[in-house]
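Could someone model acetoacetyl-coenzyme A with this protein?
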Amino acid sequence: MDFEFSEEQKMIQQMARDFATKEIKPKALELDRTERHPAEIIQKMAELNLMGIAIPDIYGGGGADNVSYVVALEEISWGCASVGVIMSVNNSLVCDPIHTFGTEEQKKKFLTPLASGKKLGCFGLTEPEAGSDAAAQKTTAVLKGDEWMINGKKNFITNGNVADYCVLLAMTDRSKGYRGISSFIIDCKGPGVAVGVVEKKLGIKASGTAELILEDCRIPKENLLGQEGQGFYVAMNTLDGGRIGIAAQALGIARAALEAAIEYSKTRMQFGQPISKFQAIQWMIADMATELDAARLLTLKAGFLKDQKQRYEKEAAMAKLFASEAASRITTKAIQIHGGYGYIQEYNVERHFRDARITEIYEGTSEIMRLVISSNILKGR
Ligand code: CAA
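Reply:
Sure, complex below.
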């Protein structure tokens, strides 16, 4: 057992921390207010190999491991949670499934530009009536000659309004239930794909959340990702990795809130002394730091298991469940420590509180995480 990061992991952590400190954190408040896609930040992250960090360099990626991905994503999300989720989706939900299930041609054509950050991806699973019940897909894909024709509507798609490519799930044979779902790679700028509503949200405001409308969208036959009928498995496998990403995002948000609370408690004078001298504040800080550390250990363990090519779906769900709920508790306490100032935008902790909330919902709600964990345990693993 070794709790020490490797030299490469330490280097990646330092690089991501420096970048987040200089280029992301100073812009986070403005990004939250303007709700704009931070294209200039994403471009610089691409140059630092952060958009496909765990993808081999022959496919344009950073060639690092999944522990490095966790470490880097915590730093980026510490800077801004919106930037964190843009990075997480491109890495976990787009590059990872193309790398795992794609053909050599698909890797050359789609993975290389995505992992090098020249293009941006999104993941089209969720539909108005297929949220937690991911198998209830209404979108259809029908093979017509050498093309698939896709019709349907996807919603709540992170990066959906700005993405170039989408890993999309659709029914190819409804009679087979979830075994009739297949996955595809779609050109979002191609004919038959339109961006619908771009949602107004509570948090992660600089990350676009959009509807994708597919109307007679024709894609080449060879854009099928994996085998026909394997799509549900592709989606579940992809989300296992995605949950490690969201756990890491929650760590970054929680750490930003904890650090702000510690700093504030040392400078805020009440009753003639800094409020950090009061046990009520000290206990809150102790609980926040302990929860953050526990969440980080769970998240690193899930990333480590993925690197070891061991099963990790239970551990990824545990990491996401605990890290996301801990982030909500930690950001709530950070506001409490700030008192009235915590409710004011300039003090940032109200943003961290809003940003944390979604981590309990997307890429599988806390309730679905508990389902995944318990079903794995009851199956003896
Ligand atoms: N890996 C591989 N296979 C898996 C799997 C996994 N993690 N989980 C399930 N499967 C397989 C099962 O083994 C089973 O296959 P067999 O019958 O061949 O054995 C098949 O999938 C069906 O499994 P279930 O009966 O357990 O499926 P279910 O319909 O009951 O659903 C669920 C399971 C866990 C609830 C699943 O639907 C789920 O994860 N729901 C949540 C969906 C989700 O996370 N959505 C997030 C949207 S994406 C998003 O938020 C992205 C964004 O933009 C940020």
